[in-house]
Amino acid sequence: MLPGSAAAAAGVEVAMALGVDPSDAEQAAALGSGAFAGGGKGREVLGQAQKQAEQTTSTILLTLAKLFQDATASPIAGPHGALTLGGIPASISLLLPLYYLSISMHNSASTCNNLGILLSSIPVVTTVVNAMGQPQQLNGQALAMQYYTQGLQLDPKHPHIYTNLGSLLKDLGHLNEAIKMYGKAVESKPDFDVALANLGNAIKDQGRTQDSVVWYRRAVMVNRRFPEALCGLVNALLAVCDWSEVYVGEDGKGGGGWMVDVSDLVLRQLRDGCQYGAGAFHTAGPIEAWVAAIIEAMGDTRQAAAQIWTQRLQPFYQPGFDRVASQVCEGGYLIQLVERMMRRSQRRWYVDAYGKGMIRAEMELPRVSVASTHGVYARPKLPSCLVTPAVPTVLPFHTFTYPLSPRQIRLICHRNALRISQSTLTQMWVPDVVYPPPSPPAPKINIGYVSSDFNNHPLAHLMQSVFGFHDRSRFNIFLYATTPSDESPYRRKIESEAQHFIDVSAWSNQQVVERIVMDNIHVLMNLNGYTKGARNEIFAARPCPVQMEFMGFAGSMASRWTDWVVADPIVCPPEMTGVDRWRWERVQRATDCMADLDPEEESEEWVYSDRFIYMPHTYFVNDHKQGFRETLPAKTIEVATLASNGEGAEEGSVGLREDEQLWASEELKRYAMRRELFPGLPDDYVIFADFNQLYKCDPMLFRLWLRILRRVPKSILWLLRFPAAGEHHLLREAREYAGDQVASRDRGSVSGYDRVQCAHDGGGYTLVGDAFVDVAEAYA
């Protein structure tokens, strides 16, 4: 050991800490054997020093792993570029060894927590041999559960572990247990904003929207800029029509309320998201390699193809290219480019196997073989430097009811599509080649429908008969149900009438995709869109050459895994589409691809980046003709007879034509139900009805309805208690805006009925309404 070195100085400090004179050779020699007489603490102190060293090393490894874990979750590289370990990019393969080394040296609750977070995100399922020598399936969520449990044994009051364990339980469908864990997190740390917001989310998922408000409000009071808490509070307040905090200031004297904060949040998140994947093209390879891969995948035989693609990609290789100022999202463009290459490769495979003009065969042709292609139709890979992109906290479904601009709506949908694409295409189960195309129709076209709503759900109410109506001489119909049966009559009807009904609720995305490929599906229909329960990852894997969206989501998918959206010109006007803008203005950016305009562009003149198949009148399917043929209950007929003494129904139906008799029967039916529902309501009163969920209503629309009531004195407004907590807020708003005469009772003439009347369930009684007043968007 060199005198004056750092090691020598450290040795002196250790010796002095042990009570040893460094200049005494005998004391120093005795130290090694623990025989030093100065208290006899040599071994003990050395043991403590070793323990401290292990803890320090463990903390260093934990901190390093956390830095890399944060880097994998961040779509934007730091000021010094992407974080690497000696050139090794941040990834799960790097993180796990760091965490395992850390926990092997010092078992801490924090390390268990971080390992649980990481493991819960790993979708891989493997088989191991347990202590009994039996094979056992193990996945990331099961391992995460073990580490969370171990962490709580080390620290029974660790709020982060309780919160993350709650989220894991919620993902596994154990909502009540999740709420208990969130509650314990809040008990341990009452100002923990994440736990407060998660508790609000879980309570809202139980259907207790009004109860969730208090937890969201507490989270926002702790951290006003916490996106999940802010949006959760606004969504909950809107769901129960409590508009006082959302659209006005906290003092009730005007201003923007919480919605102003949400608007600022959206602007900030969309601006930051534009930097996603900056430098990804350059990091992944030279421009020449990209151009060659694009031309090969797309089969681009144009003479100037190399020059065209070089010009398009050149800006990404220029130093100082300002992506934010140019409103170019490099990562988003790269993902869309890879998806386009996938689709073109699948198309080339079909043409090479069956011929360019082959659209129908007289007999079934053999399926293409993946093994025989020798990787010719390779799936283009996303660069490993492209992490999972962040998405705005405001979800696509909320864009229907939030005051957002066309570009904001477009980008919110687009960013969600990018996240689904990236997270799907980087899964280990995705094969190295694109999925093989189906053989030509022979002669029937195979159509697949994917939905989580083949149960007691509005979509099933509307479409329950559609699947049995298909012409089976021209089509084979496959239904893939991603949720288990609720044993409702809707599910039973759909199952019994569908040609092929497959319950895939317990299947992984990989299994569903492979089944769709095996079923030789030509057209795959997405009946969810961006709604609860959707499994859009199935579509992002591109198992089918033609993929469409229908009914579930009347908005923009803004994805390259949706080829067509079935709609009509009313709900999705052609002039609000990117295709129409391109057709008339012929505007082009480097990141546009013919009529597929880049959603990132600054224009506020269009919303939809999708391509539409327009139905001539309406895209909106309903099952009214089949679903409302029920016979009139005896009790209802009795009520009508006693109440009206024959009034209100057509008299003397003898001699009437068949259609007139049917009309008279319907009038009797309607009048009977009206008497049963509103026994004290005079016959000359008009019933204005709306059976939407209350979150779709806003103050401006509700006040319009109140003005209608004011103009039509003999009328009531009939709404659903959906949720029931909304009734109180609506009646309060009605009294404040229109007064008691309109909001409460029409002094003696209504005999106890509120002018704004709420009901539990419309059901078949929707026939009772005289006029339906619909909402502006996301209508019933």
Automatic annotation (TrEMBL):
- Pathway listed: Protein modification; protein glycosylation
Q: Name one GO molecular function term.
A: protein O-acetylglucosaminyltransferase activity
For this protein, what is the EC number?
2.4.1.255
Q: Where are the TPR repeats?
A: 159-192
- Is Transferase among the key words of this record? yes
Q: Name the family.
A: Belongs to the glycosyltransferase 41 family. O-GlcNAc transferase subfamily.
Q: What name goes with this protein? A: protein O-GlcNAc transferase
The organism's lineage? Eukaryota, Fungi, Dikarya, Basidiomycota, Ustilaginomycotina
Write the gene name: SSCI71230.1
